[in-house]
Structure formats: C-alpha cells, structure tokens
Design brief:
Strand content: under 5%
Shape: rod-shaped
Number of domains: 1
Radius of gyration: 25 Å
Oligomer: single chain
Number of helices: 5
Length: about 130
Amino acid sequence: MRKGLIKQIYAYVICAACVGGAIIFLCIGIYSILSIAWPEFTMPPWHWKEIATFQSFKTDWEKSGKAPSLSDEDLRVRWLDKRDVTIQAQKRDAVHNLIWMGIYFIIAIPLFAIHWRMGNRLRLEEA
C-alpha cells in the first residue's frame, strides 16, 4: 500500500509540473504572438528609444564621439536600417520562443498523459 501511494504521489507531482510549465509557456507564447504582430509594442524601452524617431536617433548619433558626421539623408538611411534590423530581431526572438514552446509541449503532453494514467491506475488498484 505504501509503495503504491509513493508512486501515485510521484505520478501526480509530474503531472502538476507539466501543467505548471504549460501555463508558463502559454504566457510566453501569447507574448511571442504579440511580439510578432506588434514588435514595437513589446520591444524593451531602451531599444525603442533608440529607434522611435529619426530625431532621437540623430541626437544619439551626434552624442557619440566616435561617429562620423553625416548628412541628414545618410543618417535617415542608417536610422531606417537600424529600425528594420531591430524590429526583425524582436520578431526573430518571438519566433524562437514559439519554437521552444512547441518543443516543450511535444515533450510535456506525452509525459503528462503517461503519468496521469499511471496515477489513476494506482489509485484504482488501491481502492
């Protein structure tokens, strides 16, 4: 009886861990979908401040001592390029998070099912 109870507790603890991880990864997945749809909204504030407007980019460029002085047209090209790269990096990170979420669920769902069945079988054997 005692050995069966310990196995039953083990099985349900694994199930609880799978459900807890699923909740966390679902939240990450929702945030990642938002990051793909609206990367400017989910971008960290320090990155957004660097690329939000041309004027903020120009001010930061002029403050850096090592940067060569460029015309506004050349600076605008650099700003647009940096903005595009930053937004694409945000989307890329979100896709990576979705891939990790998928990998977790590929592992967690069978693990949950196996342990749930084991716990139920042991519970029925005790009864």
